Amino acid sequence: YCSVLYSLTGRTGKISIEYSRTGDDSASYVGVQRAPTKHGNYHNGLTGNGNGGEVVIFWSESEGVDLDGINSLLIDLDAQTVSLNGQEVKSIPGSGDLYFGVYDGSSSGAGTVTLLSWVQVPTPTSVPTHDEVNSMGTFTIDGNTVTTQYSTYCSVLYS
C-alpha cells in the first residue's frame, strides 16, 4: 500500500492536473484528501489500511476515469471541491489542510499514474474586454459568459 501526497496548503484558487494511468485500478489512482493521521504503508481513507485522511478518490470508470487516455482533475481550493473530466463536482469531506494524492491500494497489483501537467488556474482580477478575449483564441461570448471550445472548466462566467 502507498500514498504519495502533495500538500496544497496555503494555495488558493483552482488547480488543474492532467494525468494518465495504467494497470490495476486499485494499484493506480488519485484523489484529494485531508491531512493523514498515519504515515507508512497506507493507501487512502479512514478504515483498514487507509492513511486516516478524509478523501475523494477517482480510481475506476464508474467514477469517470478514462482508463486509456488523459484525465483532467480540477481542484477548487476555495470551494473545497474536486471534479474529474468535467463531471460531477464533489465536496471534499472534513476540514483542514488539503493534499493531492496518488495511491496504490493493492497488496499485489501493479500500475502507474503519470502526472502530465499541474497548473494553477489564475483567478481573473477584471473582466476582459471583447478584443482581449478574441485575441486569446477560439471563444464565444454570450452576454457576460466567455466560453472556450475545449472544456467545461475552461469556461469563464462573469456576473
Q: What does the model show?
A:
With 159 residues, this protein is mainly β. The protein contains one helix and twelve strands; from the N terminus they run βββββββββαβββ. The chain has one helix at 130-134, and strands at residues 2-7, 14-23, 29-34, 55-58, 70-76, 81-84, 90-91, 98-104, 111-121, 139-142, 145-148, 156-157. β11 (145-148) and β12 form a beta hairpin. The termini are far apart. The model is unreliable at 133-141 and 143-159 (pLDDT under 50).
Q: What's a concise summary of this model?
A:
The chain has one helix and twelve strands.
What is the chains' assembly state?
Answer: single chain
SSE-based structural type = mainly beta
Instruction: Please provide the ordered H/E string of secondary-structure elements.
Output: EEEEEEEEEHEEE
Helicity level: under 10%
Strand adjacency order, main sheet: 7-6-5-2-9
Counting H and I runs of at least 4 residues, what is the number of helices? 1
Distance between the termini: 46 Å
Average of the residue pLDDT scores = 78
Q: Can you count the beta strands?
A: 12
Query: Could you give a short account of the major beta sheet?
Result: 5 strands, antiparallel
| Share of residues in strands | 35-45%
Radius of gyration: 17 Å
